[in-house]
UniProtKB/TrEMBL annotation:
GO MF entry, a single one: ferrous iron binding
Name recorded for this polypeptide: 4,5-DOPA dioxygenase extradiol-like protein
CC cofactor: Zn(2+)
Native species: Cajanus cajan
Domain of life, source organism: Eukaryota
Entry-linked Pfam families: LigB
Amino acid sequence: MYPEADIPVCQLSVSSNKGATYHYNMGKALAPLKDEGVLIIGSGSATHNLRAIGPRGTPPPPWATAFMSWLKTSLLDGRYEEVNEYEEKAPYAKMAHPEPDHFFPLHVAMGAAGENAKAKVVHDTWDGCSISYASFSFTTAN
């Protein structure tokens, strides 16, 4: 992405014992950095259940596709509060994310983008049967 490796990088850890809204608010606190040219990236997995990994090339199970369908629709429709309440709102939330640490980076990026940001799917693949590597970008609303 930056072949000269001439940009500063700062890693931010998520707090698994805090909720999705906490991480969304963390993103909101980081949002002003965008005005200084800072790129905010959240890196995780859209589904991440290592106990449910299967052979490569195997179609994703119904619980995984149901969760991903809900997530995509929620993000693309701008229903970020629902994504913050994914444990109650999403189908198979606990199956898709037995632990939240691979999902919370999305909430940080979502918060940094802002309430009126527009989400877009930029990548959508599966691996190991149940691991979704769907990637989203957020465009700040004018």
